[in-house]
Amino acid sequence: MKWYAPVSIKQIAFGFIGSLLAMMVLIAGFAAYQTHNVTQSLSQANHEAARAELAAAVERLLRRTENQAEKLSHWDETRQQLVLPEYYAYWRDQRVYESGMLPSRFTRTVLYTASGKLLAPSPREHRFPADFPAKVVPHEPSNWLAKDDGAIAMYQSFPVYSDEGRQTLLGVGLLRLDFLPELLRQVDFRFVDKDSVGLVLQTNESIPASKLLSQLSFSARSDPDQSRFQTILSRTMLALFVLLTAASLVGYFIYNRLLERPLGWLSQEIDAMQHEHTSHPLARARPMRIAELENIRRSLYNYQLQLRDLHGSLENQNREFHSQAR
């Protein structure tokens, strides 16, 4: 039969403490893994919410611009400028804003003749193309974005007919606005980080408004609740680890004072008793603070006394036997 080597009680204590710490590390690792998964899910949901919010803002801006263009296309004063353009500059720079057709001067408008020529030169600070873009159909509303003079501009074209029957095309109108400032100005974003919204276009490059959302770059705003959750969890796990380590050290100190050291003393005294190095060693041993160990010490002490008495009695009988034998 195979017998295993005996294990020291100190080794058992170290193994128990090591198991506790290893279990704590495993729990912390599992918690960190779960937290990472939850964080990834929350980040993805936050990004999707930001995309939906940005898409709604873009759609709102496009619809607003289309409505403004439609109102201008049906306005009698717009037709009048294409027939009698004497007051066109006043109409372009003042009248469209005073009448409420355009809400602010961030949106500018010009008119082109039916042949595609600019009705009058545009101001230098709000420059428009001299010729209506050839790739744009003048008979139907259209919108696109282009990079002009280093800025991203959004254009909205609208046809102007002589009457509501749309029989004769008098000309074409064009709205222009700075896209990014106008997009960010119209709404307070909750999920989108405003500073991260961007659109990269090369000089003279243009894209249709239908492809705008796929070209926009953006980042979701960091969730403060998520950051606080991660901070609280990290601090909690660290506090638990420190607490468990401190408790293990204190527990080992108590275990060493109350169990390991008294057992060592008891073992040494028993060894000394076996070799008869001392007389009554257990009687001189200090009392043990653990009741069970103290009972063992007293029982061994009493057993030792009984053995000594028995040994003395046997020696006396042996001497008497030898004296009678003589």
Overview in brief:
With 326 residues, the chain is of the alpha+beta class. The chain is built from eight helices and seven strands, in the order H-H-H-E-E-E-E-H-E-E-H-E-H-H-H.
Explain the overall architecture.
- A hairpin with a 2-residue loop joins strand 2 (142-148) and strand 3.
- Helices cover 57% and strands 13% of the residues.
- The chain is rod-shaped, with a radius of gyration of 47 Å.
- It starts with 8 loop residues before the first helix and ends with a helix.
- The protein has helices at residues 9-73, 76-83, 88-98, 179-185, 212-215, 224-275, 281-284, 291-325; strands at residues 107-113, 142-148, 151-161, 169-178, 198-199, 206-208, 216-217.
- By secondary structure, it is of the alpha+beta class.
- It has a five-stranded antiparallel sheet. A two-stranded antiparallel sheet has the order 5-7.
- The protein has eight helices and seven strands, in the order αααββββαββαβααα.
- It folds into two domains: 40-222, PAS domain (Beta-Lactamase, 2-Layer Sandwich); 240-312, no CATH class.
Strand runs, count? 7
Low-confidence stretches: none
Strand order of the largest sheet: 1-4-3-2-6
Examine the secondary-structure arrangement and name the CATH architecture of the largest domain: 2-Layer Sandwich
Radius of gyration: 47 Å
Shape label: rod-shaped
Largest sheet: 5 strands, antiparallel
User: What percentage of residues falls in helices of 4 or more residues?
Assistant: 55-70%
Question: What's the domain count?
Answer: 2
CATH homologous superfamily caption of the largest domain: PAS domain
Keywords: Membrane, Transmembrane, Transmembrane helix
Organism: Sulfuriferula multivorans
Transmembrane segments: 12-33, 237-255
Protein name: GGDEF-domain containing protein
